[in-house]
Design a protein that fits this description.
Layout: H1 7-26, H2 32-64, H3 71-92
């Protein structure tokens, strides 16, 4: 059913396989670990500014006895800043 290829065709098949392998490696597809690391970096880029803004807002509300007057807007500002920073970082990648 499967006949052996002549030597010329075998060399051609091997050359095509090698070229396909080289092309795949040249594309530089990132590994799973690299993608996973990038997701972690993005998460921290959003969470850290949000937590800092939350802490500042809570401190201001405690000092001024103002409920959540400062916490809520600063939290929104921190998340917005983190998302903007993550967006810029993705653009550079």
């Amino acid at each position: 059913m499967t006949e052996a290829l002549p030597p010329e065709q075998e060399r051609l098949v091997d050359a095509v396989k090698q070229r396909a392998e080289r092309r795949r490696r040249a594309r530089g597809l990132p590994s799973f670990a690299r993608n996973f690391g990038q997701i972690g970096v993005l998460g921290w880029q959003i969470v850290v500014p949000a937590l800092i803004a939350l802490a500042i807002g809570r401190w201001l509300d405690h000092r001024l006895s103002s409920g959540i007057f400062w916490t809520a807007p600063l939290l929104i500002l921190g998340v917005s800043l983190g998302c903007w920073s993550a967006w810029k970082w993705i653009g550079r990648q």
